[in-house]
Design a protein that fits this description.
Order of helices and strands: EHEHHEEEEEEHHEHHEEEEEEH
Shape: flat
Structural class: alpha+beta
Strand content: 25-35%
Radius of gyration: 25 Å
Number of helices: 8
Helix content: 25-40%
Strand order of the largest sheet: 1-2-3-4-5
Largest sheet: 5 strands, mixed
Number of strands: 15
């Protein structure tokens, strides 16, 4: 029996996916009872067709721009020859991305055994769940790295129903995930933040400062540095580097300071999911007295979903019972 995860309308994605998941699992269970306990089932995970269309259209425009640049290069080589080369390279890159977007991943389940299969350039590849040595999810990179003794596989998060696929792989090898124990309240959870937002922020500030320095009169150039005060303050005191979660609360570490939020100071909390670049991200927001803390997988190097229950247990153990 094969179940195909299809694209669902925005706003109804999470609810419809839960319904599809429950229906699919119930059907598999009922068929399993009617036939044999070793029945092999397959779930197919693939990207949205709109991604293929996007990559093909991008390839077309790159090649079109390259063709016009090649025609212009007959009259003047510089810089149109380089534009033609860049257009050809961009078109080739989008073509490769379009081919990869067509790749389907088959999750084969037979009893307690789990196997992931896919076809790469005409050849079938596979990873067996019990052979996994490492399963590292990097949400902000939209990738999960599967490591075995023979190969390393990069699994994209743009697959529809990817969270269900990752959950099955984690359950197949729970020891490689190393979940936090509820019995040991002294354990700490460190959520690392990607450095790319800070890097782009610094480059943006440098570009603005450089443009202002070049455009204003010489005597007024130093006054342009005053406009960098607020962005610099935001970078040093408002851009988080990492989060430390303990039984006492959440500590937000910034570049120049840190802020401790106790669980008893949290007035309400909420959770949400959103889609960006064809991938789904999960976030938790804690509204505290005097501010709030937003744990967003789109900015984290550490996955948040597997530790949701552990975080909420720390929150409710402090005497809180608020859900917003």
């Amino acid at each position: 029996m094969t179940l195909v995860f299809t694209v669902l309308p925005p706003g109804k994605k999470s609810i419809a996916f839960i319904i599809l998941q429950d229906v699919g699992l119930s059907n598999l269970h009922s068929t399993n009872l009617e036939t044999s306990s070793q029945l092999e089932t397959s779930l197919v995970f693939q990207r949205s067709r709109s991604e293929v269309v996007f990559h093909l259209l991008s390839m077309f425009f790159c090649l079109l721009a390259g063709a016009f640049a090649g025609y212009a290069a007959l009259v003047k080589a510089w810089p149109w020859l380089w534009v033609m080369i860049l257009g050809a390279i961009g078109g080739l890159g989008f073509l490769i991305s379009a081919v990869k977007s067509l790749r389907k991943y088959h999750l084969i389940t037979q009893g307690e055994e789990v196997e992931l299969r896919w076809k790469s350039w005409g050849l079938w590849q596979s990873v067996v769940g019990k052979e996994l040595l490492e399963l590292k999810t990097i949400p902000c990179w939209r990738r999960t790295i599967l490591v075995t003794s023979q190969r390393t596989v990069v699994l994209p998060h743009q697959l529809t129903g990817c969270e269900y696929l990752l959950d099955r792989l984690r359950k197949a090898r729970p020891e490689v995930v190393k979940p936090l124990s509820e019995k040991d309240s002294s354990q700490e959870l460190i959520l690392k933040v990607s450095l790319l937002p800070s890097l782009f922020y610094v480059l943006f500030m440098a570009g603005v400062a450089g443009a202002a320095w070049a455009l204003v009169p010489i005597r007024a150039q130093y006054f342009t540095l005053l406009f960098m005060a607020f962005p610099l303050f935001r970078l040093l005191w408002r851009t988080p580097r990492r989060y430390l979660l303990t039984e006492k609360g959440i500590t937000s570490y910034f570049w120049a300071s840190k802020k401790v939020w106790l669980w008893s100071e949290v007035e309400s909390w909420s959770e949400d999911t959103y889609a960006s670049t064809a991938a789904n991200f999960y976030l938790m927001k804690f509204l505290c007295r005097g501010g709030n803390v937003i744990l967003d997988e789109g900015l984290l190097l550490t996955p948040l979903r597997p530790y949701k229950e552990w975080i909420l247990n720390r929150f409710f153990s402090a005497g809180n019972s608020v859900y917003f």
